[in-house]
Specification:
Oligomer: heterotrimer
Number of helices of chain C: 7
Radius of gyration of chain A: 20 Å
Low-confidence stretches of chain A: 117-123
Order of helices and strands of chain C: HHHHHHEH
Distance between the termini of chain A: 61 Å
Distance between the termini of chain C: 22 Å
Mean pLDDT of chain C: 78
Largest sheet of chain A: 5 strands, mixed, barrel
Shape of chain A: elongated
Number of domains of chain A: 1
Chains: A alpha+beta (about 120), B mainly alpha (about 240), C mainly alpha (about 240)
Strand content of chain A: 25-35%
Strand order of the largest sheet of chain A: 2-4-5-7-6
Helix content of chain C: over 70%
Mean pLDDT of chain A: 73
Largest sheet of chain C: none
CATH architecture of chain A: Beta Barrel
Shape of chain C: flat
Structural class of chain A: alpha+beta
Low-confidence stretches of chain C: 29-51, 190-198
Chain lengths: ~120, ~240, ~240
């Protein structure tokens, strides 16, 4: 087989590997820092919201969902419902990264990531 | 130690040219037709695969029907059934060539790329047939519940193609080995692990009506995995296949 | 390898070991090292408790992460020699590919073992199907299968060709195993995850890089020894090396 075929093949493979390893969802879900941006997104679309937990607002509903309030960059408060186990470090995390959709009942999150401030640092 | 093919075959099937590409595809279809004809005569691989699938569907549904429904357990069970049935049957296409001593004739008559594409298509048809049997069985026996059929079908097709791509390459590698069955399964698993994970995850997303994420991300991963594997296999196949 | 370099390797690794215990301070919080994230699993997250159970134990990361770095380098070298064999057909290229894969497997096993020790100390269980653990296990299985394939094919030339093809395929599948698989696993198990935040103090960086250099140095040394043995064996069997 000619050299050209190998080069085309190598380029194709590199393209496929890049396509597979760059996260699809991240390109589709915009990062929002304010509630206005969340509301501006198309209805029902998945977005990511960064905010901080309003202390003491977390509670469990009767259906087992976690409900809490999150404050965005402009100090606007939005009510969040999360179906899942409360993540470790949830109460003490300075920032929460939520992924979900915004609707009439508030923000429905299917993923919470907690930002951890600790590092490999000296005591 | 370079392998030498007759010049005429290279000239006719050189994939660098467009006419060569058409030649390769036509030969691939011929290989596929030959395999299908042989298969319908003997029904060796298809019966092994389907019987394995039916048996394992019933075996898992026997005790685990409580975990059916939309839970990710049913997606996992579905893909375990599909994967192991494939392991039991997909190596047949190359092993039969070696056993029936037709491999040398196949090597002479067509280019490696055509052989690979033909066998890949054959294996993909086998896997799709297997899925068509396994999904209704699990729906009935395990109580599996699919809500998004379009996405589910997409994941099944993409996952099946990924499974066949890896299995076809592995089967070719194993056809010269001594203990074919064991080596085949051992080689396939780490090669196919990302595809298996993506398929399971995508199927569970497609089945679950409450899922926010769509399975499109997993289909994309499967497509890029297939692309990588098929492109690499096409380039490497002449080394695996020829003497 | 000349004596000076061998002695140098010994001194270097001794310095790394001493430095780990005397120079690097115990870690307070927990964050997966940036180096490992960038080199091995970009974007991979892990669940954890706040703070280390035994801050002194964090030092194991200085031996754990460079093992994975050395393993990855070895696997890539193996694929390169495999491609060289397919182009040129020299038996020694095939031997080099196998030797490099073997050393890579050695470093992968070491990385898995140190990771399990770390996990037992930090999380209480040696194995918890953490995405990173899963992918290192898959990597180990990938190259274990490589050696199984090699032992299964009796003909020397067929073995060389097929294992060369497998080595290249394995190297191409590695990005999927190391990057895509953990992402899918964190989607399946949406545990508490970490974003950003993590960092390495300069002492940890220095020790990690030094250990990585030491391990790669060690890999080169072992590689050269084994290549010389392979050359003798090939010559004894009257196989043309070039």
């Amino acid at each position: 087989m000619s050299k050209g075929v190998y080069i085309i093949g190598a380029v194709l493979i590199a393209a496929f590997v890049t396509m597979g390893t760059t996260e699809f969802v991240r390109s589709q879900t915009p990062y929002c820092e304010t509630l206005q941006q969340v509301k501006a997104a198309p209805a029902g679309s998945v977005v990511r919201l960064i905010g901080s937990l309003v202390p003491g607002s977390a509670n469990l509903t009767s259906g087992g969902d976690l409900c809490f309030s999150v404050k965005d960059k402009n100090s606007q408060i939005v009510r969040v419902t999360y179906k899942g186990i409360r993540p470790a470090g949830f109460d003490t995390a300075p920032k929460l990264l939520l992924r979900g959709t915004y609707g009439s009942a508030g923000f429905a999150a299917d993923d919470i990531q907690t930002q951890c401030p600790s590092k490999y640092r000296n005591k | 130690m370079k392998t030498q093919s007759p010049d005429s075959i290279i000239a006719r099937t050189e994939p660098g040219t467009l006419r060569g590409l058409a030649c390769v595809l036509r030969s691939a279809v011929a290989v596929l037709a030959k395999d299908l004809r042989c298969e319908f005569r003997v029904k060796q691989a298809i019966s092994a695969i389907l019987l394995f699938a039916v048996t394992s569907c019933i075996a898992v549904s026997f005790t685990l029907s409580a975990y059916g429904g939309n839970s990710p357990v049913s997606a996992t069970l579905l893909w375990i059934v599909v994967y192991f049935s494939a392991m039991s049957g997909l190596s047949r296409s190359f092993v039969r060539e070696e056993d029936m001593r037709t491999a040398a004739l196949l090597r002479l008559s067509t280019s490696p790329g055509s052989v690979y594409l033909g066998k890949l298509a054959f294996n993909w048809l086998l896997v799709t047939a297997l899925q068509i049997v396994a999904v209704p069985l699990l729906i009935v026996f395990l109580g599996m519940n699919v809500s998004g059929w379009a996405e589910f079908a997409g994941v099944m097709l993409a996952g099946g193609l990924a499974l066949s791509a890896g299995a076809t390459t592995a089967a070719a590698m194993v056809s010269k080995a001594a203990t074919k069955g064991a080596v085949f399964a051992v080689i396939c698993f780490p090669l196919l692990a990302p595809a298996l994970a993506a398929s399971i995850h995508g199927s569970s997303l497609a089945m679950d009506p409450r899922a926010i994420m769509s399975a499109a991300g997993d289909i994309r991963i499967l497509a890029s995995y297939c692309g990588t594997l098929i492109t690499a296999s096409l380039m490497l196949f002449r080394f695996i296949w020829e003497d | 390898m000349p004596t000076a370099l061998r002695v140098g390797l010994g001194l270097w690794m001794s310095a790394v070991i001493l430095g780990t215990f005397l120079y690097v301070p115990p870690a307070q919080g927990f964050a997966y090292p940036e180096a490992a994230r960038i080199v091995i699993l970009p974007g991979a997250e892990t669940g954890t408790s706040d703070g280390f159970a035994y801050p002194e134990a964090a030092r194991i990361v200085i031996f754990h992460v460079p093992c994975s770095i050395a393993a990855l380098a070895a696997y890539i070298v193996s694929a390169i020699y495999a491609a060289g064999y397919l182009r040129g057909g020299r038996a020694i290229s095939d031997e080099k590919s196998a030797i490099s894969a073997g050393l890579g497997l050695l470093f992968t096993v070491l990385a898995t073992a140190t990771g399990m020790i770390f996990a037992k100390i930090q999380w209480g269980r040696p194995w918890s199907w953490d995405p990173r653990q899963t992918s290192i296990l898959m990597l180990m299985m990938l190259y274990a299968a490589y050696f199984m394939l090699r032992t299964a094919i009796p003909s020397r030339t067929a073995r060389a060709r097929i294992s060369a093809a497998y080595s290249i395929l394995a190297a191409l599948v590695m990005p999927f195993l190391l990057i895509v698989l953990p992402r899918i696993m964190t989607s399946i198990h949406p545990k508490d995850t970490l974003t950003g935040g993590g960092g390495l103090s300069p002492e940890y960086w220095a020790a990690l890089m030094a250990a990585a250099i030491g391990y790669i140095w060690l890999y080169v040394w072992l590689f050269r020894i084994q290549v010389r043995v392979a050359e003798f064996v090939l010559a004894a069997r009257r196989v043309r090396i070039e």
